Each structure stands twice: as C-alpha cells, then as structure tokens.
Amino acid sequence: MSKILARQTAAGSRVAARAAFHDVFSSVNGVCKHRFQSGRRLQGGELSEIFKAFERDFDGNVDSIAAFDGDRPATRTRPKGEAFERIRVHTSPFENDGVVWLWTTRLFASRKTAVFETSRLPFSWLQHAVARVFERSEGNMDANRQIGEALMLHNFMLSVAADLVAVEKLPTRLAIPCADGMLLGEVQELRAPEGTSKRYMYERDFGGVSTVLPQVLAWRAEVGKTCTSWRAFTFIGEHEMKANQHEYVARWNELRRLFKATADRIVQIQPRMNAVIDTPAEAAPGGFDALSKEFERATDYVRQLLTDPVMSYAIGNKYTPRPAPALRPADPQPLVEPAAEFYPAM
Questions:
Q1: What does the alpha-carbon distance between residue 241 and residue 228 come to, in Å, rounded to a whole number?
Q2: pLDDT computed for residue 175 by the predictor
Q3: Which of 276, 284, 338 is nearest to 107 (CA)?
Q4: Which residues contact 254 (CB under 8 A, 6 or more apart)?
C-alpha cells in the first residue's frame, strides 16, 4: 500500500509540475518571440507579464524546496534596466525508470534578454526509497520533499564523500541521515542529462536552446562528459537501524555540525551558480579557492569515517583495502546534442 500511495502522490506532483513548466515556457516564448524577432525590446508591461506568469503557473503549482529571488530595479542612469530572476529547487517533474532527481529551474528576464533554464543537481533517488520513507516514518505523505530536503542539507558532505569514493576507489555504498533514519545509496557516474535539461535563451539577435550540464560544484573541475553522482535506493527507519548504523548517522551528523558554516554556504551557492542577479562570488574564476581548504579538511574527516570497517559494513559495503569496481554509470544513454532550431517549441 505504501508503494501505491507514494506512486500516486508522486504522479500527481509530476503532472502539476509538467503543466507548470509548459505554461511558463509558453508565456515566455510567446512574449519574447513577438518582440525579439522584430528586433525590439520588451516593454515594461510584457516584463511584468512574464513575472506574473511564473508566480501564477510555477510557484502556484510546484512545491519548491528552496527559492532564490533576485530583482534589479531601474535607475536614473538606466531607466530601462530593470530585471528579475527566480531560481527554484524542487523534485523533478520528469521520471525515468522510477528515478527522481533534485532539480533547479531558473527564469531571468530583462528588456533585452530572457532565459528559461531547467537543470538537475547530481543527486537522485528511486521511488522505492520514497515508499520506504512513507512506510517507515509514520506515514509521511510528503516523502519526496523530505528526501529532497535531506539532500540539500547534506549537499556539502555528500559531495565530499562521493568525490572521495570516486578518486580513491573506495566501496561505492554511501548513506546519509534522513527523517530520523538513513537513506542508503550508491556513488555513480553521471553522464550528460537527458533532453529535459535545457537552457532556452531569447535575445533581439539570437534565440536558441542548448543542453545544460548537471550543476556540480566547481572544486570537482569536471567539465567533461561525466561527473560524480549519488543515488538513494532505499531507506531504513529509526527503529529498523542497527547499533552500528545509529553510530554511522551520529558520526555523519557530527561532521555536518563541524563544517556547518561551509555546508550552509554550499546550500546557497550551488543552485545559483548560473545566476545573473546576485551571482555568488564563488561562481567567478578562482571563487572556490576560499573554500578549498575546508573541502580538503572535510575530506580527511570523511575518509576516516568511510574507511572504518565497522562503518563501511553498516552502510552495506564489505570493506576491503583493495580498490572497488569502477563506478556503474547511472545514465548510459548517449549524450544529447544541443538542438539547433530557433525559438523551439517545448
């Protein structure tokens, strides 16, 4: 029954989110196509129309986990320089083989340019994990959101751990705390996103769509065809956990508290890496240098946790000092080439 309820709840959310995506895109596409193809700027009323469409169609239908708003007012020297930007973090409206992704949607609009972007973060989970959270945490009807919030909260530590597993060839099973229990998952290799990860750009002289890569953190220096990812496949409730699993969660949470300032900052940075208004300083070249020492220090602590045989066994690994097998690809499909059409239909 828990699987059925979880599936029905998720299906309803996806239908509403897909409709919201389509409605916002149609509004942006309609206004921009009308103005920009004739070489003109957007009028103030048209800019307001796009903003209201996002508030009505997206915010009114999608339950966002995090929201970042940026507004640039007109000034005396730039009387037509007003712009707005809306960034939302939410669970994906697009499901592939029972997999849910943590997703970002960004809308930027000025009189000269509009950008509508959908991009996923390198974290995902199976619907089976959603059903288990629902079943084992007192009938939580919003299990999808609870998983998404846990991934955002532990984003920094999870990124450190996943990178460590990939670089040092440690066993690939990895777990994080969630809903008074733990999400069990696996570090994987993520290929370029499927066709739903796109950036639609509109300007007076250009209009087009391009593939958007996963928003990985800059210290990974990954600009190629793959990046390190993590996928949760099940959930163990507080009352089902063994003593060594309780110890693992306690040690993980202690590390999260130790690096709280950096971890909280990463929650603010990662969804806004492509922002135009209020761009985080870390998005600039060399911007992550200030955080690199914390990343290295956290890596040393996480290594102690993951190479402890008792802790490794607690999260499903049979620990051995020998390298683990190569990471299993999470998305083996071929890369998606950018579309070439002008002002494409969604």
A1: 28
A2: 97
A3: 276
A4: none
